Predict the 3D structure of the following.
Amino acid sequence: MAETSGTTSGTIDATPETVWYWVADGGRLVSWWPRAERAEDVQGGRFTLVLRSSRGVPVRVDWRVSQSRREQLQRWEQELDDTPFAKAMRRSAVELRIEPAEGERSLVTVTVERDLVQRGLTAGMLGRRAARRYANELLTGLRRAATS
């Protein structure tokens, strides 16, 4: 199994309260999550994001909130059991840490973690690169939503 992760940090010209508004509710994630078209079945810390794949195919991804500290931390774990993703990943998670920054700004750290089924140096290297890229896309989307 190849454990991969990617982390990025950056400031957002919004207070932690404003950033939290965008991350606390699964229904609002569609506004900034990469390739998200809609959110479904948002209730009790669980939700489904319908994403558009690079080939233009809609893909359903089920998530649950696994950790949450108001205006500080939100962590989602992808529900993989009985999904096509289970063939490629044993675990998938996204974590956002929010800290106050100077003025009315926030420092946001995004970490994407994946434990891949495929083993080997190449899988690990490609997985880390993909995780970093996705973390950057998440931060960019959140920055756009929180400052609009």
Q: What stands out?
A: The CA atoms of residues 98 and 108 lie 5 Å apart. Helices lie at 16-23, 121-146.
